[in-house]
């Protein structure tokens, strides 16, 4: 058993707990501890990606209990990719926050670490109840992070966010209770095995459980009727927190992939899944359309970015509901791209807002902007990447999604929704950019220069954003190895028997007896 | 016993859902509490309902499944702490927004 595997959970846990105990530490030490922990997480995530590339499934049995007893952590290519994405994103968010946003309230770095522990745990766990627990960990940390800094807007958005997620947790427990009552197990591999052999009479209840789970993960991922908490919450949160929240909707997507394709997917033809996918397809398309309209109607860059998150969720869930291996690989690539780029835009809204005289990131306010050229070029490059134009990762991922969806039925709906929402994003971003950067006659040039003198450009913040855009560019540059890796990941997801065998192989071969 | 449990579950859940849909934060918090009670009871009953059989092996012929009890314990801890958190949050929001409406403002205030 390789103890490195549990490190992505243990490191943030210990760092966060230490930071809580040592709350008297000055902010410099807190920052270096937080950044150090995130750097370690990146290193372990790289190890995890390499390890998953060598061995399909790496197991970690907590307390050395043989699965299906006890809790098991499972590392495969999908979870390793998500771990690396989370680690990189958190590093940038903590770096950005260390320039001042973490001073708005106390315990920022500790909360960040607990948040990371929850996210990493949700990606690694192979047990459904443990998934619930890690969801709660990441949610509790996110409640506090959302409210971090205080203020009326955050209290208002926080109340909605907390209440809908508490109702979601209640539904999650109902679904878990139902599944346990039917199958007598909560280990994902064992669940898959039992569900595949479940008698016909259990099917309605299994369907009810899977639909309940869809609602739960739909709340996390912001699927159509359950997404109205998102724009307000994401635009109220401070910039680095909102940037980290870009991964939170993807946790919902990841949970759907794991649960619907692996746990309910082992059965021949997966009858319990058909209902879920039939619901998911139209709702994801409408989510996508609504996101596009929201992007066009948003009054500030943060709200616009929140709606771009919704667009990305719509694309991911629509591709998931088509139930195809190639398409899943393509949408995983899109997941990497969209998470990084929406995070870039949350940070960029804050960065540009700081150098505007008035109005922060609102479009309706015309005000002089200092460092117009630097910020304008960063915005232009980021907008090109976000709008999925070449040569950035967005273009590669969307082209791949469109190409691999062509053999499937109803692909024109997907094409139309993706292309039109892309067009709306281009329109909204170019309107925002031209309003801010191309109105020299309305700035009094002298005033802008006076502002620029007093406010020097924050190089660390700008560099953080630039490095994130560079990652999006290098994703496109090194697309081939990434695509190969993600294709292998999708292939593993669509072979749930391999997952079940890796987790339960020993147990089944011993005839259901536990080895001492 | 099944009937009693089923009726209790139904009453707890339906009152919980009704209260969650109310417009004031206090009733929403009460609704969340009732809903989580209902969920805990449901989770507990998923280990099948029997009498006089403790969750200890060797004491009696037929022992109950101990796992749902462990799950309920975890769920109780989480829901209890979350209730405490949401009460504080609701108070904070009511003080800051000067309104205990869940939206922070009463949409019909002007008409009254």
TrEMBL record, chain A:
Domain NADH:quinone oxidoreductase/Mrp antiporter transmembrane: from-to ranges: 126-409
Primary localisation category: membrane
Membrane topology label: Multi-pass membrane protein
Entries under InterPro entries matching the protein: CPA3_Na-H_Antiporter_D, NADH_UbQ_OxRdtase, ND/Mrp_TM
Subcellular location: Cell membrane; Membrane
UniProt keyword rRNA-binding, yes or no: no
Record-stated family: Belongs to the CPA3 antiporters (TC 2.A.63) subunit D family.
PANTHER family: NA(+)_H(+) ANTIPORTER SUBUNIT D1, NADH DEHYDROGENASE
Protein name listed in UniProt: Monovalent cation/H+ antiporter subunit D
Species classification: Bacteria, Pseudomonadati, Pseudomonadota, Gammaproteobacteria, Pseudomonadales
UniProtKB/TrEMBL annotation, chain B:
Pfam families: Oxidored_q2
Subcellular location: Cell membrane
Transmembrane stretches, start-end: 6-21, 28-47, 67-91
Keyword Manganese tagged: no
Top-rank taxon, per record: Bacteria
Keyword annotations: Cell membrane, Membrane, Transmembrane, Transmembrane helix
Recorded topology in the membrane: Multi-pass membrane protein
Gene3D superfamilies the record matches: 1.10.287.3510
UniProt record similarity statement: Belongs to the CPA3 antiporters (TC 2.A.63) subunit C family.
Name of the featured protein: Na+/H+ antiporter subunit C
Species of provenance: Marinobacter azerbaijanicus
Organism taxonomic ancestry: Bacteria, Pseudomonadati, Pseudomonadota, Gammaproteobacteria, Pseudomonadales
């Amino acid at each position: 058993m390789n103890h490195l595997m549990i490190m992505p959970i243990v490191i943030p846990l210990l760092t966060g707990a230490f930071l809580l105990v040592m709350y008297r530490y000055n902010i410099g030490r807190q920052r270096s501890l937080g950044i150090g922990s995130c750097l370690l997480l990146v290193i372990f995530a790289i190890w995890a990606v390499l390890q998953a590339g060598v061995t399909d499934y790496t197991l970690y049995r907590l307390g050395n209990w043989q699965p299906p007893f006890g809790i098991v952590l499972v590392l495969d290519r999908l979870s390793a990719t998500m771990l690396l994405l989370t680690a990189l994103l958190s590093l940038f968010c903590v770096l950005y926050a260390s320039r001042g946003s973490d001073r708005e309230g106390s315990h920022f770095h500790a909360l960040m670490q607990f948040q990371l522990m929850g996210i990493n745990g949700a990606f690694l766990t192979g047990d459904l109840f443990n998934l619930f627990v890690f969801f709660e960990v990441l949610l509790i940390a996110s409640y506090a992070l959302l409210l971090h800094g205080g203020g009326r807007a955050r209290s208002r958005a926080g109340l909605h966010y907390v209440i809908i997620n508490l109702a979601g947790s209640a539904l999650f427990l109902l679904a878990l209770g139902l599944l346990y009552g039917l199958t007598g197990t909560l280990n994902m591999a064992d669940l898959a095995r039992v569900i595949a052999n479940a008698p016909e009479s259990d099917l309605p209840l299994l369907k009810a459980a899977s639909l309940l789970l869809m609602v739960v993960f739909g709340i996390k991922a912001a699927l159509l009727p359950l997404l109205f908490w998102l724009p307000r919450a994401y635009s109220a949160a401070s910039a680095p927190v909102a940037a980290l929240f870009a991964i939170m909707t993807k946790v919902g997507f990841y949970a759907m992939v794991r649960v619907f394709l692996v746990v309910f997917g082992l059965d021949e033809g997966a009858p319990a899944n058909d209902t879920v996918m039939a619901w998911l397809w139209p709702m994801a398309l409408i989510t996508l359309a609504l996101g596009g309209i929201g992007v066009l109607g948003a009054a500030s860059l943060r709200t616009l970015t929140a709606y771009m998150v919704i667009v990305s969720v719509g694309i991911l869930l629509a591709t998931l509901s088509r139930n195809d291996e190639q398409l899943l690989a393509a949408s995983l690539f899109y997941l990497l791209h969209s998470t990084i780029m929406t995070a870039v835009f949350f940070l960029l809204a804050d960065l540009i807002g700081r150098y505007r005289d008035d109005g922060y990131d609102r479009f309706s306010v015309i005000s002089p902007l200092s460092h117009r050229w630097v910020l304008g070029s960063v915005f232009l490059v980021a907008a090109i990447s976000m709008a999925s134009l070449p040569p950035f990762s967005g273009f590669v991922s969307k082209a791949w999604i469109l190409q691999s969806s062509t053999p499937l039925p109803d692909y024109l709906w997907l094409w139309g929704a993706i292309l039109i929402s892309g067009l709306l994003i281009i329109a909204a971003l170019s309107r925002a950019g031209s309003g801010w950067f191309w109105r020299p006659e309305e700035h009094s040039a002298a005033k802008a220069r006076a502002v620029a003198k007093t406010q020097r450009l924050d190089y660390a913040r700008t560099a953080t954003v630039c490095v994130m855009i560079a990652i999006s560019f290098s994703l496109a540059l090194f697309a081939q190895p990434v695509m190969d890796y993600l294709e292998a990941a999708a292939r593993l997801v669509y072979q749930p028997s391999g997952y079940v065998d890796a987790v339960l192989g020993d147990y089944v071969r011993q005839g259901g007896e536990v080895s001492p | 016993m099944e009937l009693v449990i089923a009726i209790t579950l139904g009453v707890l859940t339906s009152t919980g859902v009704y209260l969650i849909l109310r417009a004031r934060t206090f009733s929403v918090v009460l609704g969340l509490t009732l809903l989580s009670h209902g969920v805990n009871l449901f989770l507990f009953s998923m280990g099948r309902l029997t009498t006089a059989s403790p969750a200890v092996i060797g004491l009696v012929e037929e022992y109950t499944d101990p796992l749902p009890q462990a799950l309920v314990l975890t769920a109780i801890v989480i829901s209890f702490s979350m209730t405490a958190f949401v009460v504080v949050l609701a108070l904070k929001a009511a003080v800051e927004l000067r309104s205990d409406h869940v939206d922070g403002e009463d949409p019909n205030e002007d008409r009254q």
